[in-house]
Automatic annotation (TrEMBL):
Pvc16 N-terminal domain location: 7-185
Source lineage: Bacteria, Pseudomonadati, Bacteroidota, Cytophagia, Cytophagales
Superkingdom, taxonomy of origin: Bacteria
Full protein name: Pvc16 N-terminal domain-containing protein
Pfam families named among the record's database cross-references: Pvc16_N
InterPro entries on file: Pvc16_N
């Protein structure tokens, strides 16, 4: 589910760049900025790197009770509630030296893209996205300099020009049935006769 959303967002942005500039190369990649050994992967040089920073449960839709759904007319199935997530995704321009301005241009175009497309229909996302989510939204996040410094230190990379977007709502609805509640077939009055 998360991977499907990330890949589709990356593809939308790459297609937008191709439509605007006419080139065939993808400029946005999904990757870590730094490998576990501290080195920078070669595939992220001169690219806009997209990575998942954090995910969380959408608090406005949090529901701890189980839910009941129709089940063959004989009763109801009991399932865990749907988990609605939001993702914090970072887009950073990993362009150096003479290409630094080019990276800022790509980052500006990403901000512009999400400003024009704050809500995206998920019907074209394919089988990896829950049918319960028809749209996802994009919200630019603003962080303090202290928070940004802490994030980049945790990543293990030098600060790069970047933007962080909160992507909402991602539905996780793959919990198995936890019980079965039979349907009421008679009322108490009928059973006393």
């Amino acid at each position: 589910m998360i991977d499907t959303v990330m890949v589709h967002v990356r593809d939308l942005i790459n297609q937008n760049f191709k439509n605007q500039h006419g080139f065939s190369e993808n400029k946005v990649v999904i990757s870590n900025l730094v490998d576990l050994d501290g080195s920078s992967p070669l595939e992220v040089d001169d690219k806009v790197v997209m990575f998942l920073l954090n995910l969380g449960e959408e608090p406005s839709l949090k529901n701890h009770s189980s839910r009941l759904g129709a089940f063959d007319g004989a009763g109801f199935q009991s399932k865990s509630p749907i988990l609605y997530l939001h993702l914090h995704v970072v887009f950073c321009a990993n362009f150096r030296n003479k290409k630094y301005i080019e990276g800022l241009n790509y980052l500006s175009q990403i901000v512009s893209f999400f400003n024009k497309n704050r809500i995206i229909d998920t019907s074209s996302f394919g089988a990896g996205v829950s049918k319960k989510i028809e749209k996802i939204s994009f919200e630019l996040c603003s962080l303090s300099f202290d928070s940004m410094s802490h994030i980049w230190s945790s990543i293990g990379a030098k600060i790069l020009p970047s933007s962080i977007y909160k992507i909402s709502l991602i539905a996780i609805d793959d919990s198995p049935m936890t019980g079965f509640v039979p349907a009421v077939s008679t009322t108490g009055e009928n059973s006393r006769e």
